[in-house]
Design brief:
Length: 357
């Protein structure tokens, strides 16, 4: 190793760090000035943030990977935004949950995250304006929809202003690093289902599987009782200082959860958006086909079509539809008009940038 060469590079890094420091603070000053111009109005602008991150990824010459530079800029924007006004975000807790990870992935670490005991409570805190935004899980690639979030969307006045997509890795966690003597495994019902095959193969049949409100809650319980294990993610393992007995035990390697971000604002258009709506349909032949017609006729691509029993009438259904594009664009506006002529209930849940990170 040449000491001279090493020093040369380190001196160069020292100089670059000074430049980065100055540039970061210049950027922060501009954000602060923008905050003054907004004058107490809406500070968080998801459309602008998506544009900044997409542009950085597109311009990135490497050798840093695009995903990495986007994550760094995510944190820079998070700090700049906090200078304008710190954001408070309600999420499905407790601390260490996947929803908290999703929240930090989307808003960065300068946001104040508030753990809530239920999805209902998280929505309530934002609806009553005690907190600014809510992050809630909406679907998992193996387990399907999160029913409670969908049900709350029917009546909430909040608008979707973003989505977060998170790869889910489950680990078997315990206070002591040994597989022997486990009597119970705690996990959220969805995590138990997602690791079903692994549990059958690797744990004796007498080990009880107990579903609890969240994976982080499972980790908390396992931290209190050495006879128990928990299925949870990395954040919960760290939060409760648990040993990892087995890593990535999910049966489906591409296990992914999608979360929604909701607040009180409408979001402007970007080059890649989604629009989410709910429509109702009576339980009669051809009703669903009739709903899909205006979408097809206007060349609108659907990314999701999910049905839930409506609370209003026996065997009536509501449909959750996600479409590519912003509802202010011509084809979606026309499709929505067509839908409105065919059903008594159409609710636009929001238009928002497709997940960038
Ligand atoms: O452009 C803005 O409106 C800003 O406030 C600046 C900024 C940024 O740091 O780039 C910060 C927060 C917003 O959510 C979007 C972007």
């Amino acid at each position: 190793m040449s000491e001279d060469l090493l020093k040369l590079h380190r001196d160069a890094i020292d100089q670059i760090d000074v430049d980065i420091l100055h540039l970061l603070n210049q950027r922060a000053q501009h954000a602060r000035d923008i905050g003054e111009i907004k004058g107490g109005g809406i500070i968080y602008r998801p459309e602008r943030e998506a544009q900044v991150l997409r542009r950085i990824k597109a311009l990135n010459p490497g050798p840093l990977p695009g995903e990495s530079v986007a994550r760094l800029f995510r944190e820079i924007m998070s700090e700049c935004l906090a200078l304008e006004k710190p954001l408070s975000i309600a999420y499905l807790g407790p601390e260490g949950s996947f929803t908290q990870l999703a929240t930090l992935k989307h808003f960065g670490h300068a946001a104040r995250t508030v753990a809530c005991a239920s999805i209902d409570e998280a929505f309530r805190l934002v609806e009553s304006r005690q907190l600014d935004y809510v992050v809630a899980p909406v679907e998992n690639s193996t387990e399907g929809a999160v029913g409670r979030t969908l049900d709350l969307m029917v009546s909430t006045p909040l608008k979707i202003c973003g989505e977060v997509v998170l790869r889910i890795h489950h680990h078997l966690l315990r206070k002591t690093p040994a597989m022997e003597g486990i009597r119970r495994v705690y996990a959220h019902a969805q995590a138990l289902a997602q690791c079903h095959e692994w549990l059958n193969k690797n744990l004796p049949a007498h080990v009880e599987r107990i579903s609890v409100a969240s994976n982080a809650e499972a980790a908390r319980l396992a931290a209190e009782d050495a006879n128990c294990a928990a299925i949870a993610g990395q954040a919960a393992a760290e939060r409760y200082s648990l040993a990892k007995l087995a890593e990535n035990i999910e049966d489906e390697p591409n296990n992914t959860t999608r979360f929604l971000v909701l607040g009180h604002q409408e979001v402007g258009q970007t080059a890649q958006d989604k629009t989410s709506i709910i429509v109702s349909a009576p339980n009669r032949p051809g009703a669903v086909h009739s709903l899909l017609e205006p979408l097809a006729a206007n060349g609108v691509s659907m990314t999701k079509f999910e049905s839930r029993p409506s609370r209003a009438g026996l065997w009536d259904y509501v449909f959750f539809i996600d479409m590519e594009g912003h509802h202010s664009s011509d084809n979606i506006a026309q499709a929505l008009k067509g839908l409105g002529e065919r059903t008594s209930f159409v609710k636009v849940l929001g238009a928002y940038p497709q997940a960038v990170l």
